[in-house]
Amino acid sequence: MRIALICRNLSTFDTDATLLRLAGELTEKGYECCVFTADSGPAVQKERFDAAFSVVYNGQLTQVAVTEQKQGWVRIFTIAAANAYLFAAAAAGMMRRLQLQGEKISLLHLFSAEDVCTALLCRQYFRIPFVYSVREFGEIKQSKQDFAALSLMLPQSVFTVGSYVCTEQLAAAEAMYVIDETGSPGLWREFFCSYTGKYIEGRPFVNVSCWSQCSVAPRQKRKNELLQELQSDKEIVAACEQQPASPSTLSADVLFVSLDLLTKAERLKVLQAADYYLAETVQPEKLLAAMAAGCIPIAPRESFTQTIIRDEEQQAAEANGYLYRQEGWSKVLQRACNDFRTRPGWQQQLRQRSMMLVRDSFSIKTAAALYDSIYRGAAPVRLPFIVEQSMPPLGAGLRGGDNAEKQN
């Protein structure tokens, strides 16, 4: 089976290499994988083929170049068009060329509603179905003119706001399957319940091998280098998305490092050196990436965090982080700091269990296994007439961290 993974903007994922690694995992399961993107992404082998298409856009002919490269068995088509209309037209042109060569795409996999034009165009003209992974929900809209210019027939039930189409609802309504990878149970009522019968409960996933990659220097040395670079002599480093208002009881001991404006490489450097990752709001992929990098998580007690983080106060034998309630994180961080000083071995166990959980349950490999079942027609869809019982926390049964990979 030949699968096309569609993602115009690779920033949809936690790293630029995530989609290519996913494609690589799928080829190991016997699929032929083609990646269609507008981002060049990481460097690949220089084996290449170039094509160009003349696309009618705003009443004029616009040249759109397509470069094909290979990474192992994965074919990567980079389309020089950030515009959704031009990208969709060139992607369809490339798929037509593949079809003429006897290499028709069997299925498209969409990772962002921003690319729904591409999926609908290929389905309308080449009868290629698609599945849609919802990685985040952002109320994305696109001009009706883009669809009309491509002669796309939209369903009468499509959600619109003025002259714009709500593309997340459109993609979900038209897809064969809708895969929930948001890690946000509250979106079931808000969005996913409208698509029962095709809804599949997935999980967020991250490029674990990237975030947990070993460095020659041990973690303490990396931390010392970070402190020296930031000109700080504080004892504890806590990574966070934005600088919090630090209580005076903590400000003398804890250096808060904001990740908000950092590049992915800089983010990796901080996360592989920090002691803790403080989440004031839950962003599943960022939380999982921090855990994979070896940061002990401190997060609010919510539906998603309770499935992946177990606090000693509730589950001592399987603890891998800290959870706080509505009163705030400062008391919990103070408890973590006390553990840091008095129980270093315990802290290392928390770190190892946290890394193991992400590796075993939220990796590219686990995502590829789910996609394999979907592509083969064995999709575990949610039944609308069954009330789901609460599931045990992921990784329940991991104890001690004795078998954890001591990567850090």
What would your notes on this structure say?
The chain is an alpha/beta fold. The chain folds into two domains: 2-176, 3-Layer(aba) Sandwich (Rossmann fold), CATH 3.40.50; 208-361, Rossmann fold. 35% of the residues lie in helices and 20% in strands. The chain has helices spanning 18-28, 84-100, 116-126, 144-149, 167-174, 187-190, 208-211, 219-229, 248-251, 264-271, 284-292, 303-308, 330-342, 344-361, 364-375, and strands spanning 2-6, 32-37, 48-57, 60-71, 74-79, 107-110, 130-134, 141-143, 160-161, 164-166, 178-180, 199-201, 236-240, 254-258, 276-278, 296-300, 322-324. The strands form three sheets. Strands 3-4-5-2-1-6-7-11-12 form a nine-stranded mixed sheet, sandwiched between helices. Strands 14-13-15-16-17 form a five-stranded parallel sheet. Strand 13, helix 9 and strand 14 (254-258) form a beta-alpha-beta unit. The two termini are 39 Å apart. The model is unreliable at 399-407 (pLDDT under 50).
Regions with little confidence, pLDDT below 50 for 5+ residues: 399-407
Please, how many domains? 2
CATH topology of the largest domain: Rossmann fold
CATH class of the largest domain: Alpha Beta
Secondary structure class reads alpha/beta
Q: Can you tell me the overall shape?
A: globular
Strand fraction equals: 15-25%
Strand order of the largest sheet: 3-4-5-2-1-6-7-11-12
Give the CATH H-level superfamily of the largest domain. Glycogen Phosphorylase B
Terminal-residue CA separation: 39 Å
Largest sheet features: 9 strands, mixed
What is the helix fraction of residues, given as a range? 25-40%
Q: State the CATH architecture of the largest domain.
A: 3-Layer(aba) Sandwich
Radius of gyration: 23 Å
Q: What's the tally of helices?
A: 15
How many individual β-strands? 17
- Kindly report the average pLDDT value: 90
